[in-house]
Amino acid sequence: MIDLLLIFRILVFPGFTFILFLALFCEWIDRKLEARIQNRVGPIVAGPGGILQPLADFIKLLTKEDIEPRDTKKLVFRFAPLAAFTIMIFAMCFLPIDGASVLSSGTSIAESGFNGDLIIILAFATIANFLLFLAGWASANPYGTISSARVLTQFLGYDIPLYIIALTPAFIAGSLSIGVIAAGVPYILLAPWAFVLFIITMQAELEKGPFDVPHSESELVGGLETEYTGAKLAFLHLTRDVQVVFGSALVVTLFLGGPSGPVFFGLDWLFHTIWFVLKLIVVVAISAYITNVFARLRIDQVLTGNWKILLPAALLSLMLTITLVTWVYHPFGIGV
To answer: CA 156 to CA 32: how far, in whole Å?
Structure first.
């Protein structure tokens, strides 16, 4: 028998359609904040306050001519952007946006996932980044090749501290389940140092400023997107937008209590969604502020910051967390 509710959750809310428009909305917020910091106006034409500009840009690119250079690895060049976008959407479906993950049959936030789904969604993010590397490599363009090499170097390096820091709320909650972690207290209160480190590492993982050397237009023209046009370029941009939303949503889930918050009138799904989106917007704003306030790092500074600063800091954070969990938090019933 066809489960119409499950189909609705996958295709409409809180699945594909909702995530797509949430990504476009967060791009608008990011562009507006960036414009305000730089004393510009930002999007103002399409829709009230320019809110429909990201959607208009996406539709415009879909209508543009799709050109493929002669020497590209055509199969990878054609399908890598769409595959990366699909994987990021699938990873978002594991997060309890409305109090439960898209595929969950649980009735509470804690029952919305399964033990180990935290590792799985982090692995999906890694696979999506690898597909973006393949997209640049397949374009057979020197700028795209250099950019893709930087993408590979950067995300492989920053994946290690990202995974380690993500274990902080998992240790406090005593579970690798996203639902159990999101149902607990906001772990920013119990491990604020890990929150700061996670924000910085996620900024590097998303290749946002000041860690945006793979896309530095002064050196690499368009980076891995140099040879992309039309629909392929549209999906590359959309993948970036979904990645930003995914990274921000992961911060919300691990450190800010996920969709937890006051619920009124028995409308759990509505208020869970509202709290999740409001928290997500705050994280997007923090990310945009970091991007625009700090100058772009050189590639050697990006690598040094990873191996000599963030990785040791992540290990120290994990050791501090284990010590506190063993001797303070769990003995006194804190965070469980």
So the answer is: 31
* Domain range summary for the chain, segments of one domain joined by +: 73-329
Give me 98's structure tokens: 């409305």
Which residues, at least 6 apart from 34, have a Cβ–Cβ distance to it below 8 Å? 40, 42, 288, 291, 292
Residue 87 contacts residue 127 (beta carbons within 8 Å): yes
The predicted model gives 91-104 an average pLDDT of: 86
The sign one gets for the Cα dihedral 38, 40, 45, 49 is positive
User: Closest by alpha carbon to 121, among 250, 252, 287, 19?
Assistant: 250
Give 228-249 pLDDT, tens digit per residue. Answer: 888 888 999 999 999 999 999 9
Put simply, whether the predicted model's pTM sits higher than 0.85 gets the answer: yes
43 SS3 class: coil
The count of C-alpha atoms lying within 13 angstroms of the C-alpha of 116, restricted to the half-sphere facing its C-beta, is 0
